[in-house]
Amino acid sequence: MVIGLLEILIAFLFFLVFQGFLHHKKTRRHLATNWPVLGMLPGLLVNLPRIYDCITEVLEAAGMTYHFKGPWLSRTDILLTADPANIQYVLSSNFVNYHKGLEFQEIFEFLGDGIFNVDSELWEDMRNSSHAMFSHQEFQKFSVSTTLSKLKQGLVPILESAVEENIIVDLQDLFQRFLFDTTSILMTGYDPKCLSIERPKVEFGEAVDGVADGSFYRHAKPVFLWKLQNWLGVGVEKKMTRGIVVFDQFLEKIISARREELKSHRTHHDSVGEAMDVLTYYMTVDTTKYKHLKPSNDKFLRDVILNFLIAGRDTVSSALTWFFWLLSKNPEAMTKIRQEINNKMPKFDPTDLDKLVYLRGAVCESLRLYPPVPFNHKSPTKPDVLPSGHRVDEDMKIVISTYAVGRMRSVWGDDAEDFRPERWISDSGKSKEESSYKFLAFNAGPRSCLGKKLTFLQMKTVAVEIIRNYDIKVIEGHKIQPVPSVLLRMQHGLKVTVTKI
Ligand code: HEM
To answer: How far is the C-alpha of 106 from the C-alpha of 226, rounded, in Å?
Structure first.
């Protein structure tokens, strides 16, 4: 009887809240309205299809920092910010106080103890060891040769067949396959060969989408709720569990095969000449130098490699997809890039890529407007006050909206929403840098991205090949919508037709 009355009371409360809610006029206000019991959750749910823009509008109106209140007692309060002063403070000046923290590690449990998920000494060892690996000349040569051969032997034949057969292709899908193959070769020495005319089902890709979406929802759901859903195996939590199984199976096979090879001294290193993949590097890493790394532990290797696979596959493919969509909407920029390529790089030579100043501007502009990692999550270890005056404590999540930072008029000027590669070119025609606290796509401070150089190499190489040879047209009426997730991908892909120039 008591439970029955309680249910009626709760139902009535929900009814009142939603009645009031439905009569609220401005979308921006919906997110900002703090309802009894439910906090700002209803606004978040209603605005999910346009969550990135909605957060941008709220932050612009609120002076770039906003306290999002979750349902009562749910511990889902979030301090949202897009203020470069706060960002510099959290990511750099007071870095020691802002960890990933235990909550982050729970939300992103699939990453295990990989570089994205750990703090302190383990992170330092991972950071220093992977920095040494990525900046090694041999690894850089290996990156160029792998990217070029996948481009010529994988991507180009598919584009050619799309031209010949006059069929629609999904560029997002092609870029994901391209980046999965290349990243897997660089990280593990194994080529999954999913970039082929047959386009086989890619379980790994589906698994990444599932865990990325699940992690997004875990930020806003009360912990007990997502844990219950996970235990019951329902909804997006089912995909979280499934994703972990797929990652484990994929990497287990690769790791054990490589161990066998190393045992019999037939290392990948020997078989591809000077090339050296990241897995081999970590299996033989110097533990006197990096005391917290465990090369003989398969779980350790699984975590390291999985983090790098996701870092390389899903970011660059997302960046390329948004880049080509933006160019399809800005044909004059496309023409300028084509002219620049024809004038400055009549024959492809990776050492000439730096000459393509306008192309670099277009890539930066696309990463500013559509950063593949749209949010960054931090937890304070001690209470603190941010430069904007907002107080934070240990129970709070700080979420930096990288998507919003790139669109703040107070940061980028009144044309912040426009795609303008010229923004990145100085008066003397040279490439212009911007502060990493406002151009945040690659993160900033001690945890800034280690793959930035590789990203520009891959994006510019693919862009040159495609723009020089093909005309890409997005099919009429194709709906472009970003998925609410921790990785920015298009809900319906990017369907295009391809013609030869
Ligand atoms: C468009 C391409 C890319 C973007 C937008 C991007 C963005 C980011 C961001 C936002 C972070 C910070 C993540 C966090 O702290 O939670 C990060 C870190 C990192 N990125 Fe990238 N990334 C890209 C490509 C790559 C590539 C190709 C690699 C190499 C395979 C890579 C390797 C890393 C690593 C190792 C870190 C961890 C740094 C640390 O925690 O110390 N990234 N990246």
So the answer is: 11
Q: How far is the CA of 337 from the centre of ligand 1 (A)?
A: 26
Q: How many Cβ atoms from other residues are within 10 Å of residue 204's Cβ?
A: 21
Atom number of ligand 1 nearest to Cα 134: 29
d(CA 432, CA 443): 18
Comparing C-alpha atoms, which of 191, 302, 309, 192 is closest to residue 248? 302
pLDDT at 29: 53
State mean pLDDT over 243-264.
Answer: 94
Q: Three-state SS for 415?
A: coil
- HSE-CB of 262 using CA atoms within 13 angstroms: 17
Distance 397 CA to ligand 1 centre (A): 21
Phi-psi region of 303 (alpha: psi -120 to 50; beta: other; left: phi over 0): alpha
Instruction: Looking at the CA of residue 307, tell me the nearest atom of ligand 1.
Output: 35
Distance CA(96)–CA(165), nearest Å, equals 57
pTM of the predicted protein model: 0.92
The Cα–Cα gap between 196 and 14 comes to 51
Of 350, 333, 364, 340, which is closest to residue 433 (Cα–Cα)?
364
3-state secondary structure 156-206: HHHHHHHHHHCCCEEHHHHHHHHHHHHHHHHHHCCCCCCCCCCCCCCHHHH
Cβ–ligand 1 contact at 444 (below 6 Å): no
- The candidate with the shortest Cα–Cα distance to 304, out of 255, 265, 344, is 255
**37 and 72 Cβ atoms separated by less than 8 Å:** yes
Distance CA(72)–CA(37), nearest Å, equals 5
φ and ψ at 377, to 5 degrees? -115, 130
What domains, with CATH codes, occur in the chain?
1-46 (no CATH), 47-68+76-111+119-500 (1.10.630.10)
Closest CA to 253 of 209, 203, 210, 214: 203
- CA-only gyration radius of the chain, Å: 23
Residue type for 180, please?
Answer: F
Is 194 a known ligand-binding residue?
Answer: no
> Is the pLDDT confidence value at 179 over 60?
yes
- For 497, phi then psi, to 5°, come to -110, 150
Query: Ligand 1 centre from 308 Cα, in Å?
Result: 8
Is there an atom of ligand 1 within 6 Å of 56 CB?
A: no
Beta pairing class for 397-401 and 78-81? parallel
Q: Which amino acid is at 453?
A: K
pLDDT digits (tens, 9 = 90+) for 361-409: 999 999 999 999 999 999 999 999 999 999 999 988 999 999 999 999 9
Which residue's CA is the closest to the ligand 1 atom numbered 21? 449
User: Residue 406's closest CA among 431, 430, 442, 377?
Assistant: 442
Q: How far is the CA of 444 from the centre of ligand 1 (A)?
A: 10
Helix (H) / strand (E) containing 237: helix 235-263
